[in-house]
Amino acid sequence: MCAADDTALRTGKSAFGSWHDDAPGVRRQFRAGDLPDPASERSTVGASPALHADRGERVPSVPPGFAVELVAKGLHGPRVLRVAPNGDLFLAETGGGRILVFRPDTDGKLPSEPKVFAKGLSDVYGMTFFPPGPEPTALYASQTTSVMRFAYRSGDTQAGAPATVVLKDIPGGGHSTRDLAAPNAQQLLVAVGSASNIADGMPKKSAADIAAFEHASARGAAWGTEDRRAAVWSIAPDGTNARLYATGLRNCAGMAVQPATKMPWCVVNERDGLGNDLPFEYATRVREHGFYGWPWFYIGGYVDPRRAGERDDALRADVITPDVLIQPHSAPLGIAFYDGTMFPSDYRGDAFVTLHGSWNRTPRTGYKVVQLHLANGKPADEYSDFMTGFVVDDAHVWGRPTGIAVARDGSLLVSEDEGGTLWRVRAIPNP
Questions:
Q1: Bridge partners of residue 70, in order along the sequence
Q2: pLDDT in tens, 338-364
């Protein structure tokens, strides 16, 4: 592995790497022009890594000046994390069908045994407190085909009544992640990933039919088995007025609202099968009525050769190039903006992203937490490794990061679903 003090910015071809050269502090910058030609690429058909049988006392690596501690283990598919205004940590235990609550003590330390807020859920994933602000009255949570609302008062560690389903017609199958965000008190955003890799169940349409379809739906919207998918939806708090807010996002697996701008962001899993280094995953601001390319284009106006010739209209010029490009097949799942004060001041305003890792690349990449650098609230198109060391060898890992959140005391909280653990990263005070 590379030295942890190797902080020179890696650009162009040198930015592409694998778990072998990951370490806290390694910086990478990708730009659209760094993409290889699909004709020159090979695609790796592999398998997801196996869980290392001897996890032992392994601990992730973090930069100097930070300490990492295990909060809980034995969790069943822990995914999305959200911090309530009062400081309680809510965790969507997707595999266990539960929402768990960890209440920190006065020093910010979390208990190893959580309270169960709700159970008996199916693939519970996204969560958001609503309305945004210091006194939410509801916790919204998502399942693959629905969004539900729990009544909530500050300090609740158990739902006082069954949830009310406010939206129940989300298409199922394919990507099952349905993250939620509340950019304001008038709407909720719901991320709905694609049903397939490159819209296999979407028949060709004539230009006239496409125009009519988009007029009734949204610019760049997919149809057929991908109808209303690969998109972010907007709904009213009661679940009505569902519409497509943004399109062409293959799988927005994680959402967050940037505190300074109130702008929603997505981290997106892009398509497979084009090659080891195609195309980039990304994190991006999500613009209302924006189109991000899938399935016909990627990373701006690059044409997917498997769908070439299908959209020879002005749509190509409408593709938004994402803000921060991430190495292909890293599989970003969660994003959180750092608005705490525990970490050094140069972290404030940046974002952290969990990279779950993918089967579609050899050697593997991802399996870490990275820091997205922003300057005055705007993306600086580079990122740094922050939390690494989850990979054991080319075939085994002991953890795959999933959820991420900033605790009220400013520490960073990270879940991972391969080993079923929850971690806390804190800054070490200067002596």
A1: 423
A2: 999 999 999 999 999 999 999 888 889
Which are the contacts of 334, defined by CB distance < 8 A and separation ≥ 6? 79, 80, 81, 253, 254, 267, 353, 354, 401, 402, 403, 404
Q: Give the span between the Cα atoms of 88 and 110, in whole angstroms.
A: 9
- CATH number of the domain to which 342 belongs: 2.120.10.30
Evaluate whether residue 143 is within a structural domain.
yes
- Spatial separation of the C-alpha atoms in residues 28 and 12, rounded to whole Å: 9
Q: Which residues pair with 90 in a beta bridge?
A: 82, 101
Q: Is residue 25 part of a domain?
A: no
Which residue type sits at 115? Answer: K
Query: What is the number of structural domains in the chain?
Result: 1
DSSP structure string for 88-110: PEEEEETTTTEEEEE---TTSPP
Is 19 among the domain residues?
no
270-284 pLDDT, tens per residue?
A: 999 999 999 999 999
**Model-level pTM?**
0.97
Q: Is residue 136 part of a domain?
A: yes
Range of the domain at 74: 30-427
- Answer for the pair 333, 352: CB distance below 8 angstroms, yes or no: no
Q: Which residues contact 362 (CB under 8 A, 6 or more apart)?
A: 44, 46, 276, 394
Give which of 152, 85, 92 is closest to 422, Cα–Cα: 92
Contacts of 423 (CB under 8 A, 6+ apart): 60, 68, 69, 70, 71, 387, 413, 414, 415, 416
